[in-house]
């Protein structure tokens, strides 16, 4: 449904700027119903800090998409658009005017522009593979970070003794070479010491 074909009033703005009060006044004036466009008010139990002014609705103004998901569950744009379209269609079917009120611009803009998102089933095999890849990269990065930190600490300990650092790097390279290992000079340490 493209909302441009059937426009509805929308009241937007930041938290605690008076959107709810204005939306309720408009709904009372027109006999409409409120459709929330707030990504936090969908969660039950998250009343503090989300600006859920439920008392403002009284008993005469119905509202939709508030307290519909348990806190901790994931509620995304796809679900919002699906639920919002159903609420708007239901309100219009009852001969009432929907009034969208909220501060989540992504929700408002996506609805007004008629954005259609496809339903994509969860791919558990891909998720497991990506999680494993992510864990491997974190492990590798943490070990690389320790190695780099040790190199920087060695270089900073030598501080102003740059000549001494270069000399000790040369000697450590010779010692490795005598033990049958090729010298491994770290360019960052050598540059830092220079």
Q: How would you portray this structure in words?
A:
With 194 residues, the chain is an alpha/beta fold. It contains seven helices and six strands. The strands form two sheets. Strands 1-6-2-4 form a four-stranded parallel β-sheet. A two-stranded parallel ribbon has the order 3-5. The longest helix has 35 residues. The mean pLDDT is 80.
Q: Can you give keywords for this protein?
A:
52% helix; four-stranded parallel sheet; two-stranded parallel sheet; elongated; single chain; 7 helices; alpha/beta; 194 residues
Strand line-up in the sheet with most strands? 1-6-2-4
Query: Biggest β-sheet: count, sense, barrel?
Result: 4 strands, parallel
- Taking the alpha carbons of the first and last residues, their distance comes to 67 Å
Helix content: 40-55%
Number of helical stretches of at least 4 residues: 7
What is the general shape? elongated
Which spans have pLDDT < 50 for at least 5 consecutive residues? none
What portion of the residues fall into strands of 2 or more residues? Answer: 5-15%
Please count the beta strands (DSSP E, at least 2 residues each): 6
Overall structural class, as computed from helix and strand content, comes to: alpha/beta
Order of helices and strands: EHEEHEEHEHHHH
Q: Quick check: average pLDDT?
A: 80
Structural Rg: 30 Å
